[in-house]
Amino acid sequence: xxxxxxxxxxxxxxxxxxxxxxxxxxxxxxxxxxxxxxxxxxxxxxxxxxxxxxxxxxxxxxxxxxxxxxxxxxxxxxxxxxxxxxxxxxxxxxxxxxxxxxxxxxxxxxxxxxxxxxxxxxxxxxxxxxxxxxxxxxxxxxxxxxxxxxxxxxxxxxxxxxxxxxxxxxxxxxxxxxxxxxxxxxxxxxxxxxxxxxxxxxxxxxxxxxxxxxxxxxxxxxxxxxxxxxxxxxxxxxxxxxxxxxxxxxxxxxxxxxxxxxxxxxxxxxxxxxxxxxxxxxxxxxxxxxxxxxxxxxx
Length: 299
Description:
The chain has helices at 35-40, 56-62, 112-120, 122-129, 142-147, 155-195, 253-257, 271-277; strands at 4-6, 16-17, 26-33, 44-45, 51-52, 69-72, 74-75, 84-89, 94-96, 100-103, 133-134, 138-139, 149-151, 207-208, 211-212, 243-246, 266-269, 284-286, 296-298. By secondary structure, it is α+β, with helices and mostly antiparallel strands. Strand 14 and strand 15 form a beta hairpin.
């Protein structure tokens, strides 16, 4: 069994909450990591993201470096508070917003990848959840995170474990990039055949109003049924909510696209809601509001 130590004893410098900046300052300047990136990307390196204007002093105080750990300081749902991510590589100046806590570890005694994997494990995330305070929104405090007891193997063991797991993560990333290229190829092929109408053999097909003869153009509502989600209920059974099932939320759509749908949130539904909202193979889901608004995914 490994020794335990207060997490704060592994810090290179005190943890810090992020930069608060009003929306009218957005658009130019340095990159800023917000909650969307923290939740959507397992490990962060050189992503496109929104920008904010900052001073040199703010860049120094709130800047991110390779190996920094970032934690969700607050979330609308309890399971989101304390979520951990890691900055793998920073190519351009990047800061982080006020809903995030930055932890910079002393790399002589603590491997950031090891503690990233620890806090994304069932054991480490369970420890984080003991800190969550539920008021208007669930949250954790930097001061509590500092005092949290974590496992502490010697640095050689940390390095060995993190290298082993990281090799699999890098392989997954390569495969995800291949999948992305295949998806882009499929979308371009669809456009070529069904938007530009340059499908195989199209030269000999008569066109009527821009589409092959015999095809019809109809309002989309004529060929689909749609329902707005929500109304799933409670985490515990009660008189209203008694049918159990997993829930895909808007923030889960990127995970669904990556082949790793959320399986942690288990809700109880009203039976009346389940009839119209239960997903079947081939259904398409869209987020109607939020960071990934409009991005579809086939179930």
